[in-house]
């Protein structure tokens, strides 16, 4: 099994112009969707090509059903979102991912990748497994190819 640990803001949720509110903003969990449907389409392609499943590592996991936000934004429902990382008192996302991997060793995980725009507390724990996105553009085709290469072991 291949796993994508997915952040939301700066990956599939990027700043956009809200015509109604006349300002730039991010979607928020109460919108029940994310803003960057191009990034969601790239994520779909990654999952299709690698047969990867998604684990939510975003702080959004604490306040909403992120699965529905992604499905409402165009992620096909046959792409599996199999869980979310837990929370630690120290808030270290890298350690939260490590904990999830240890707690789910029985799944037969053959490879994984972490996609996030803020990687300082992730990279030291997951060297060679982290793709950092630009928070303005999110997941791009270029970063998508890098994700695929990691999941395929290249």
How would you describe this protein?
The mean pLDDT is 93. The protein has a single domain, classed as 3-Layer(aba) Sandwich (Rossmann fold). With 154 residues, the chain is an alpha/beta fold. A 5-stranded parallel beta sheet has the order 5-4-1-6-7. Strands 2-3 form a two-stranded antiparallel ribbon. The protein is globular and about 45 Å long. 27% of the residues lie in helices and 19% in strands. A hairpin with a 4-residue loop joins strand 2 and strand 3. The two termini are 16 Å apart. Helix 1 packs parallel to helix 4.
Strand order of the largest sheet: 5-4-1-6-7
* Structure classification: alpha/beta
Mean pLDDT: 93
Query: What does the radius of gyration come to?
Result: 15 Å
Helix content: 25-40%
Q: Give the CATH level 1 class.
A: Alpha Beta
Total number of distinct structural domains: 1
In the predicted model, the low-confidence regions spanning at least 5 consecutive residues are none
Name the overall outline: globular
Q: Element order, helices and strands?
A: EEEHEHEHEEH
User: What is the third-level CATH name, the topology?
Assistant: Rossmann fold
Total number of helices: 4
CATH architecture: 3-Layer(aba) Sandwich
Give the terminus-to-terminus CA distance: 16 Å
Number of extended strands: 7
Strand content: 15-25%
- How does the major sheet shape up? 5 strands, parallel
Task: Give a quick summary of the entry.
By secondary structure, the protein is of the alpha/beta class. 27% of the residues lie in helices and 19% in strands. The protein has a single domain, classed as Rossmann fold (3-Layer(aba) Sandwich), CATH 3.40.50.
